[in-house]
Amino acid sequence: MNQQTAMPQLDTKAPAQKTLPDAQTVTEVRHWTDRLFSFKVTRPASLRFRSGEFVMIGLMGDPDPATGRQKPLLRAYSIASPSWDEELEFYSIKVQDGPLTSRLQHIQPGDQIILRPKPVGTLVHDALLPGKRLWFFSTGTGLAPFASLIRDPQTFEDYDQVILTHTCREVADLEYGRQLVEEVRSDEMLRELIGDGLDKLVYYPTTTREQSPKMGRITGLLKDGTVFADLGIDRIAPETDRAMVCGSLDFNVEIKGLLEDFGLREGANSDPKEYVVEKAFVG
Ligand SMILES: Cc1cc2nc3c(=O)[nH]c(=O)nc-3n(C[C@H](O)[C@H](O)[C@H](O)COP(=O)(O)OP(=O)(O)OC[C@H]3O[C@@H](n4cnc5c(N)ncnc54)[C@H](O)[C@@H]3O)c2cc1C
């Protein structure tokens, strides 16, 4: 683990900017690796959302050379904080030539971002039928909606066991999630629901490139039964298991196939079933 991972940079002050439409103020920024950062912004008083939903956020684009007018440059972002939180947290990729994140990665506390207060999404409790065990399958920044859901008491009230899997290339890419799980396990209110045994919240991180205690893609580990053997649990079954999936398009397609093989069916807000899926990004 490198030093940047162990001690995320924490910016604390920055000058204010002129007000944007739907502007929110950045209150904290943490850089986890050269490709990942998280940040918090103020929450609009009127914004209500369900843990797991996403919103459009962004910055003002460059002025049009012909007209000089600026348009907002917006992208979909899962809200990583739970619905009860006073602030909103986001967990972001840094795409070096990405129109938004090439700039967004430089925000500092006091800066403003644009946030359209219209939350939507399928990774919500309402889209699943009641069950006993809830799986969160994520890769990369696909962890973000689950960072919201595992800080929501309803998650532990509704299920006997919650299993969060997170697959990344390198160990440092797991650090945000590792600290998050630690935070949940030591939170007074959530700890009461999770219990001291802590087996109600199971964290199953894996890496695909760098050596770590558990190597491999989660899809492979599900397919050959390693996950169930490691955790000492029964295989996924439609009577007991519910799942939420958030990763790259390829990952989503592969895991959907596996879940269907286990007998689970895809649900939606209007038609709750046994699992739901959302893309972590387009492309
Ligand atoms: C429903 C939904 C929720 C999303 N939630 C998040 C989130 O919580 N955090 C987040 O960082 N992004 C999230 N995204 C992706 C986000 O909308 C942007 O694509 C991302 O911020 C990059 O923006 P950009 O303008 O810099 O580059 P873009 O032009 O949007 O993307 C350039 C390329 O970078 C790659 N890329 C984009 N986003 C990611 C990513 N997250 N991980 C790996 N590769 C990526 C893709 O190959 C893409 O073609 C979400 C996307 C969707 C559809």
TrEMBL record:
Q: Where is the FAD-binding FR-type domain?
A: 19-126
Quote the catalytic activity from the record: 2 reduced [2Fe-2S]-[ferredoxin] + NADP(+) + H(+) = 2 oxidized [2Fe-2S]-[ferredoxin] + NADPH
Q: Which UniProt keywords apply?
A: FAD, Flavoprotein, NADP, Oxidoreductase
Name the coenzymes or cofactors required. Answer: FAD
Which example biological process does GO assign this protein?
Answer: heme catabolic process
Q: SUPFAM superfamilies per the record?
A: Ferredoxin reductase-like, C-terminal NADP-linked domain, Riboflavin synthase domain-like
Give the enzyme's EC designation.
1.18.1.2
Signal sequence bounds: none
Asked if the record carries the keyword Flavoprotein, the reply is yes
* Highest rank taxon of the organism: Bacteria
Instruction: List the molecular function annotations (GO) for this entry.
Output: ferredoxin-NADP+ reductase activity
Q: Which InterPro entries match?
A: FAD-bd_FR_type, FNR_bac, FNR_nucleotide-bd, FNR_type-1, Riboflavin_synthase-like_b-brl
User: Is the Oxidoreductase keyword given for this protein?
Assistant: yes
Family named by the database record: Belongs to the ferredoxin--NADP reductase type 1 family.
Q: What is this protein called?
A: ferredoxin--NADP(+) reductase
Q: Which organism is it from?
A: Mesobaculum littorinae
Q: What is the lineage of its organism?
A: Bacteria, Pseudomonadati, Pseudomonadota, Alphaproteobacteria, Rhodobacterales
